[in-house]
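Colleagues,

For the teaching module next term, I've prepared a clean inverse folding example: a structure given as tokens, and then the sequence designed for it. I'd like students to try predicting residues themselves before seeing the answer, so please don't circulate the second half yet.
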């Protein structure tokens, strides 16, 4: 049987199904815990910088060192590793 035809023939069933779906959504929304700043064990941040036709030494001296200076001020930073290729 076509879904549309069934919905037209039994509108009360459709209304009840919609109401139950809305109530289930509201219940789920209120029960799911939400934290503005969730606790995480470890975080890895990757920064990739592309500079065509530059040697690794140029990238390190002109870009990576400046990035390390800025990123070293991040609160809670445990380690910082840089690779220039």
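(Answer key — instructors only)
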């Amino acid at each position: 049987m076509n879904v549309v035809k069934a919905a037209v023939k039994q509108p009360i069933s459709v209304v009840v199904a919609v109401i139950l779906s809305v109530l289930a959504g509201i219940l789920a929304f209120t029960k799911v815990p939400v934290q503005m700043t969730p606790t995480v064990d470890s975080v890895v941040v990757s920064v990739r910088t592309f500079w065509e036709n530059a040697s690794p030494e140029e990238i390190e001296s002109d870009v990576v060192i400046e990035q390390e200076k800025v990123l070293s001020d991040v609160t809670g930073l445990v380690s910082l590793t840089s690779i220039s290729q």
